[in-house]
Amino acid sequence: MLAIKNNIMAGNAARHLGKAYDSLATSVERLASGLRINSAKDDAAGLAVRELVRADIAVLQQGGRNAQDGISMLQTMEGAMGVIDDNLIRMKELAEQAATGSYSDAQRAIMNAEFSEMADEIDRIAGATKFNDIAMLNSSTGEVSIHVGTSSTIDIDKVNMTKAGLGINTGVAAQEATFGTSVAATTATLATVAANSVDLVLQMGTEDAISITLGVGTHSMAAVAAAINAETQALGYAADGTDNSYDMASIVTNDDGTFSLKLASRDAASTVSIKADSTVDGSAGTVTGFGGTLTTSTDAGAEINADNYTANTVTGGVNIASAAAAVTALDTVTAAINTKDTARASFGYKMNRLESTIAILDIQAENLMSAESRISDVDVATEMAALTRTQVLSQAGISMLSQANQMPQMALSLLR
Fold this sequence. Notes:
- It is a single chain.
- By secondary structure, the protein is of the alpha+beta class.
- Helices cover 51% and strands 19% of the residues.
- The strands form 5 sheets. It has a 4-stranded antiparallel beta sheet, covered by helices on one side. A 4-stranded antiparallel beta sheet has the order 9-6-13-14.
- The chain is elongated and about 160 Å long.
- The relative contact order is 0.18.
């Protein structure tokens, strides 16, 4: 029917043209983004699956980075253990050297000093080596858990590479004596001498007895310690070449912040002798401050009561100060090397495990990305075919709409 009020053909052409344009817009969007699903209306169920898969991919990729960080941490620790290994080898070399009978005690003392320094350096490395402020070489308890993108973790046990952990605490057995009198500062008065000056005679076991003179008046803790150490440092070398010089006195800090004077033997000792002699025969001298008050009147001297000080026998550690001790040290250092090797090996196979985990995570992430691509990515060939079809339909629709818009003109020609 020819009509001028309603152009049905134009409306129909416009509707089909609109649908073609919508399809064209969808194809252009998909080809521009590379995604088949750009919004929930494209495929609601597919969108939900895709986002879950994307989350899994992100977790797996981060798990791989976590494993890489774990390897970096272990490489840091294993590198430090390589240096510890070098120090232990040097310690064993020194022990072997000191075990032979062709060296003097003085020469062994030099070797023992280096031996102790090597052990101290091992202790320092164990405490100072950290990754991201995490220490793994100074405790045999605890672990570091590496999360690798799944609900499970790879746990790395900490190891104790300190002197105590390796069983190489150094030092020789010694006797210590700490006086009961404490002072608030090292420059504060430790001893007061009245009447006559006094000789303080100190001896550890059968070692050399040393004597310091305390004049009438007050004497600070620092001054007394310095006077004692001046005497022990002056002992010098014995006839066999042994260096007998050392510091007998030291100042220790108590838990309450006060200070006390401590004496220590040079070598192994079982007794402590502390006497006070008057410097004037037959005349009394009074000493106050070494844990109490002592009055002397003869050259024989008065033994300072053991209640005035705390005696303590220090247990000796591994050392090479003698040939016999060096032979024992060989076995001790060998055991320490075995302990270190076990710990170092554990770090090695943990690194191998983490590398294997990274490979698995990469494969999993790759397969999930492939699955996500099939769900979400646009098939370019198919979409280009759809684009071409909708372009043709759009062009045809425009032409037909133009023709339909001319139809009312035909009706007008009948009205002329």
